């Protein structure tokens, strides 16, 4: 991987903006303040046709429904049994469009799916899923669905003294078991949504109570809670990343806010649903837009 | 500072246990899993005659009461105006003894004391306090009230590949502005109690809503939330540290749980209030007890 030259990036405005920003940061920002935050779904790894975590949860819901047929009366469990992925994807898209009714139905099922187990058992389930599951249309393991240019960018920032964090709406404890191998980001630098945990007899046990939904205006709050710093670099791809991108570019230091645009039906997917407002704001806010089709020489690692 | 030999520690059981544990950890535990957590009040810095943060809050409450005399009808504001430190200390001691009534009165006042300001303004207030205030009986700046043997221990653990975190019931955003200079611990490794923050127009603003009281069984939950790891070293001094010490010594790796005992009226303070249960459990749990009088050659840095 040609980290030194961002070889997976095509020469153009996005690559130039990144290189220029990193030069300025190295010149003007103390290393401990070179904090970079990355959304995960759609920014570091593929989020279509459905979130990877939804596939994990759907398989678990289907298993629960097979073990207890009474559950099939509930739409989320029925959709899981019928492998109706669109029902799940719709719930999240509608959330970003302002309609939360289907998301609430989904959330109840999701929160019950891995409740009342230890955090170690949860990590074991996540690892087993990633070892056994491939992407439904791309035909590659989920662990190979990270974007090569973005992983290269993580290394490039690190090589210039940055510390990278994930700040995702996805589940913190769903990402942590694989972010080290996929992105070189250790668990202590993964910020995400979470369910409540309780301490019991020397271990931590999952509950079915939501703790954080790490999205929208919650992202800057959680980034501060975890780091005590304002990032100088942020990358996202959806309306849920707007406040994180704004928080990053509102500080006194040089900063770069990067928005990934999914416009490559040949190599990945082409969609703007759930990102309409963010793409509109990019123009007026001076954010850098990375077009997957035009700015990325390669999408996935070999 | 003779980090290599823990020179601020007297030869004895506590020092031997630390040296033996670190040797084992270096031999048997991967560096990224060498996570150490430290309580702050009474473990890293002096907590008597009252918590340092209480002094900060009392000064702020007194200022508010001087500006609005209606506030003097409230016990906490009246105690602040009258410099009645004992009222505040009692509230916390009673909490550890199971009576929360006075703590609730205190909490309401405390939560209002720094509400509706930006996190940057909050940090400015904290820094000003530490620059201007000395300990009421020890006659040294609060910034010099850290325990020399514990700061030496932080460096010793670091020198052996450990990553140190603070996990304190004290305020996260109260500690962060000074932990770098006092302990060499950056803000991203400070875990503590917090009030809710809201994102507004590019900045984060404090609220008067409590978020976490990072104490007792909440400590292991927050340590996991922040690090995704089970520590292998923990140091505390009160009943509020019991679950953190248990969580640390319940894992599969070599571990050390250290309890600081305040038994040195000549050089610091002599008290067990709020630590009775922890000191009792130390015997039955195999925790290492560090007697300030017997195990520390020196208490404070010069």
Q: Summarize the main sheet of chain A.
A: 7 strands, mixed
Figure out the total of helices of chain A. 12
The overall strand count of chain A is 7
Distance between the ends of chain A: 11 Å
Entry summary:
Two copies of one chain form a homodimer. By secondary structure, the first copy, chain A, is α/β, with parallel strands linked by helices. Chain A has two domains: 3-46 and 143-295, HAD superfamily/HAD-like (Rossmann fold, 3-Layer(aba) Sandwich), CATH 3.40.50.1000; 52-113, no CATH class.
Tell me what you see in this structure.
- 2 copies of one chain form a homodimer.
- Helices cover 44% and strands 16% of the residues of chain A.
- Chain A is of the alpha/beta class.
- Chain A folds into 2 domains: 197 residues, HAD superfamily/HAD-like (Rossmann fold), CATH 3.40.50; 62 residues, no CATH class.
- In chain A, β5, α10 and β6 form a beta-alpha-beta unit.
- Chain A is globular.
- At the A-B interface, α8, β3, α9 and α10 of A face α8, β3, α9 and α10 of B.
